[in-house]
Amino acid sequence: GAPDPAAYEGKSGDIITTLENLQTKAEAKLSELRTAETSARHNYELMKQSLSDEISLANKEMDAARKNKAETNERQATAEGELQTTKQDLDSDIEAFRDLKQTCGAKDEDFEAGVKS
């Protein structure tokens, strides 16, 4: 005949306890992994935001540097033009001074010659 059901009763309790223990361990591990995943996701979002902020700041600084360079180049071009004009004015003034000095020297000689005569 059939085996006595009482022979299996004690063993089934151990199996159920073992399965319950496995389930508890699996749920604890799942909870641990979910916590780790949430933490990793949070750390990723913080890093992503930090890098985005750094890139944004670097772009602003680069734009400011480009604007400053353009302004500096414009001031340099203006200064170089003014320098060239100043050099030309100086050359003209030196030439006028030489002419005036020569004219004064000639008039001085004429005056001296007139006084002596």
Key features?
1 helix; 117 residues; mainly alpha
Describe this structure as you would to a colleague.
The chain contains one helix and no strands. It has 117 residues and is an all-alpha fold. The radius of gyration is 50 Å and the shape is rod-shaped. It starts with 5 loop residues before the first helix and ends with a helix. The mean pLDDT is 92.
Largest sheet: none
Shape: rod-shaped
Strand content: under 5%
- Give the N-to-C terminal Cα separation: 172 Å
**What is the count of DSSP helices, taking H or I runs of 4+ residues?**
1
Number of strands: 0
The portion of residues assigned to helices is over 70%
What does the oligomeric state look like here?
single chain
- Alpha-beta content class: mainly alpha
Radius of gyration: 50 Å
Report low-confidence residues grouped into runs of 5 or more.
none
Summarize the structure.
The chain is mostly helical and 117 residues long. It has one helix at residues 6-116.
Compile the SSE list and pairings.
Elements: H1 6-116
